[in-house]
Amino acid sequence: MQLGEPRAGQLLISRDPGDGSYFDRSVVLLLDHDDEGSIGVCLHQPVTRRLPETLEQLRPLLTPPADPFEGGPVNEDAVVGLAQLRSPGSRPPGWSPLFDDIGTVELGNRAEDIDGHFSHLRLFVGLSGWGPGQLVSELLRGSWFRTRATPEEIFATPDRLWQRVLRRCGGEWGLWSTWTPEPGLN
């Protein structure tokens, strides 16, 4: 699958399951990639943590599970809102498109200003980040699989997301989805 340069809307799927690293069996949605580096959010790690009071008002609007997700180990004070438009082609206040009808939403808006515009909303605390050239280097080393994101995967329940994305990709990647931490079963 030829995807060219990394870009917003692509998924990074970790390739070294069981290594115990932060990104073990991770699925990361790229939000931005340029000469200064890359930024994304992990899609599979809900956390039960209280949101800052100004954002707690948004909890009733969140796609289940209605908890924030751990976006990554970088800038852990940052909170990113990721949403899917209810009406494709609309442009609600504070909306920045990433691809198709998926984008980020400005979290300074009141809940009333956001309610009704989005069919899905998730909040991510922290980011996954790479310095200049770092992500491309990791891709060349084979640390990540990369594919286009689908709305269903972005807002799906996080259980077994790593396996589901690899299975969708099929081929050799699909075989990785059967990996188990029990060596005798691999």
UniProtKB/TrEMBL annotation:
Q: Which Pfam families does the UniProt record give? A: DUF179 (PF02622)
One of the record's GO cellular component terms = cytosol
Which InterPro entries does the record cross-reference, listed alphabetically? Answer: AlgH-like (IPR003774)
Q: Which domain of life is it from?
A: Bacteria
Name its species: Arachnia propionica
Query: Which family does the UniProt entry place this protein in?
Result: Belongs to the UPF0301 (AlgH) family.
What protein am I looking at? YqgE/AlgH family protein
